[in-house]
Design a protein that fits this description.
Rossmann fold, two-stranded antiparallel sheet, 7 strands, alpha/beta
């Protein structure tokens, strides 16, 4: 089954990120609400459908993950490594969205299976332009729905 409007999950510990991302994506034309988690442990729980994320009507399995690298408890590299070990999440598009433009971070993210690596803009206007371009790309892309991951697959 193809997904027409991607379901976006944002994993970012920045408290302002939710408001900024929501505003920027709404202005770019995204209709579907964005799902947010605050750290790597929550991201894995969400993707596994565990705990408060077990109701897929409220916490739908995403087709796209915007993943920050610098998060508490588990960082983005750990989350990305975990995702790529999950057979049911192999088709999940993971866009690293980081403040780091360090070559070692970019290389490591791609080595771990990132779909793309985007450097966070420093202001709202830049974020809106980036999200508008990302949303246009996502609308042009074709996504297949992901199989539900089996509960209990967390390390």
């Amino acid at each position: 089954m193809l997904v027409e409007d991607p379901i976006i999950l944002v994993a970012d510990d920045d408290e302002c990120a939710e408001l900024l991302m929501t505003t920027a994506f709404e202005r770019a034309g995204l209709v579907r609400p964005i799902q947010f988690v605050r750290d790597g442990v929550e991201a894995i729980a969400y993707l596994s459908g565990e705990g408060i994320y077990s109701d897929r009507a409220k916490s739908p399995l995403p087709t796209v993950l915007l993943l920050d690298l610098n998060m508490p408890r588990k960082d983005g590299f750990e989350v990305l490594s975990w995702i790529r070990r999950q057979p049911a999440l192999r088709q999940l598009h993971v866009y690293v969205l980081s403040g780091s433009s360090q070559a070692r971070d970019i290389h490591r993210a791609y080595e771990l299976g990132a779909t793309s690596y985007l450097v966070k803009p420093g202001n709202l206007e830049g974020l809106m332009l980036q999200n508008k371009a990302l949303l246009a790309w996502l609308k042009l892309s074709h996504f297949s729905s992901l199989a539900e991951p089996m509960a209990g697959n967390t390390p």
